[in-house]
């Protein structure tokens, strides 16, 4: 575990399904990309592998079964198949070619999240490792950060920012690096979005004296932790 987000690829030819899952999974703290067909999914997987693929069966061109077979041949990845089919033979076929799990549409988003967590924990047990530094601990599988044995109530963006500081503990992280790593693009130099989020984190840590999150003026911020 290194504090980085779990990467999810949603593969479905229906835009509404892709949008729905992207919104829901990002709200849960996952890093999400989408593909509308199997070939695009394989290309994206080759460019930057994902931890888990949510894969529709019924798609034009390469169907989900063939895409799953090819994914499992080349990558160590969790595959959960989605389909309108709920026949037992369809489930068996998907599992035989390597799918880790199978959900019939319509499905419960909460059930999908639960199955994702179970399969990820089983396939990547190292992601269960809780890393502790000083009074902080990060459990990336659960997307939780503890401070002095109390869970911090963080938004997904606050979680990403805190993980970045945690990964670079006692090292100054520049504002530019924070923008690129947390927001994924360059913000206008006049923007104070980083300062706003740093202030929010300090409030949640009750760090009024800036004991833990320190400002290095002209350079950036660092999480100051002993031990």
TrEMBL record:
Task: Name a Pfam family for this protein.
Answer: Response_reg
- DNA-binding region spans which residues? 128-225
Q: Which GO terms describe its cellular component?
A: cytosol; protein-DNA complex
PROSITE patterns (alphabetical): OMPR_PHOB, RESPONSE_REGULATORY
Which parts of the sequence belong to the OmpR/PhoB-type domain?
Answer: 128-225
Q: Which GO terms describe its biological process?
A: regulation of DNA-templated transcription
Q: Give residues where 4-aspartylphosphate occurs.
A: 56
Which GO-annotated molecular functions does the record name? phosphorelay response regulator activity; transcription cis-regulatory region binding
Keyword annotations: Activator, DNA-binding, Phosphoprotein, Transcription, Transcription regulation, Two-component regulatory system
Q: Where is the Response regulatory domain?
A: 7-120
Return the protein name.
Transcriptional regulatory protein c terminal
